[in-house]
Specification:
By secondary structure, the chain is an alpha/beta fold. The protein has 2 domains: 8-119, 3-Layer(aba) Sandwich (UDP-N-acetylmuramoyl-L-alanine:D-glutamate ligase); 128-258, Alpha-Beta Complex (Protein-Tyrosine Phosphatase, Chain A), CATH 3.90.190. 33% of the residues lie in helices and 22% in strands. It is built from 9 helices and 11 strands. The protein has helices at residues 8-16, 35-38, 90-105, 110-119, 147-156, 178-184, 195-201, 214-224, 246-258; strands at 27-31, 47-52, 60-64, 67-72, 75-81, 128-133, 136-140, 161-165, 185-190, 208-210, 230-233. The two termini are 39 Å apart. The mean pLDDT is 96.
């Protein structure tokens, strides 16, 4: 949201206000892998919990090898294995650790949490597989409205990627995409107002096409993709230049995929 805040620091300060009205009877759950967020523990009145993909926590949830562990009220327990979490990506592991911690604090049994993690497919517009055509998978990540979200999407997929990106610029640093795009993307297909800026940020990477509409982008990807590839819509931008919102963008993408011959 740096289109609305003058700096990352001011954005972090605004987000930190969510804890202001908590008391000692409340819980505050923090991502301890983020140094800025972890530092918020010092000023909390609430009981601090944490989650981490990188190491053990004093209270909360963490990953220990391939085991997902919790420590709540001094009791340590294995909830599930990493492979039990159906939704892909390291960022979704962090989301799962968040949900696991909240569930355990609220009294949910580990076996119930495990069953949900094994079956929950994710939410609409967030790395949502919407179809497959002739061996090519189509993934709707329209909720990826900023650069970091698109980075996570690229990290979460194992296949070679045809990436459809672009839209209304939110002030993100598109140069952060240069290296992962070079490594993972067979072709970058750009749409929307930010297309020229994204292309400039890609440096020497030249496997880039422009499309006037989302339909044109999907049709271009279909013509060039091979079996085993994935066509990923993860725009790294807001949607308001061409669509009502990110949901409209994602649903139009899904409709185009479902209409493919």
């Amino acid at each position: 949201h740096l289109d609305r805040y003058p700096s990352v620091d001011s954005y972090a300060l605004a987000k930190a206000r969510i804890f202001e009205n908590q008391t000692g009877e409340d819980f505050a759950l923090l991502n301890l892998d983020d140094e800025r967020v972890a530092g918020l523990r010092k000023g909390l009145r609430a009981r601090a919990l944490g989650f981490s993909r990188m190491g053990r926590v004093s209270e909360g949830a963490y990953l220990d090898g391939d085991r997902v562990m919790t420590i709540i009220g001094g009791r340590e327990e294995e909830v599930c294995r990493r492979a039990d979490i159906r939704i892909p990506g390291s960022h979704n592991l962090a989301n799962a650790l968040t949900a696991i911690t909240i569930g355990r604090v609220c009294g949910c049994r580990s076996e119930v949490i495990r069953r949900v993690l094994q079956t929950f497919p994710g939410i609409e517009h967030a790395l949502e597989t919407v179809g497959e055509r002739r061996g090519v998978r189509f993934v709707n990540d329209s909720k990826g409205t900023n650069v970091d979200a698109t980075l996570r999407a690229l990290e979460s997929l194992e296949e070679s990627i045809f990436l459809i990106a672009g839209g209304r610029d939110k002030g993100g640093d598109f140069t952060k995409l240069q290296e992962p795009v070079r490594r993972r993307v067979k072709r970058l297909i750009l749409i929307g107002e930010a297309a020229a800026r994204i292309q400039e940020a890609m440096g020497p990477f030249d496997r880039i096409s422009h499309a006037a509409t989302l339909r044109d982008a999907v049709e271009l990807a279909v013509r060039q993709a091979s079996p085993g590839d994935v066509v990923l819509l993860s725009p790294a931008c807001a949607s308001f230049d061409m669509f009502m919102d990110y949901q409209d963008r994602g649903r139009q993408f899904k409709a185009l995929v479902k209409a493919l011959p």
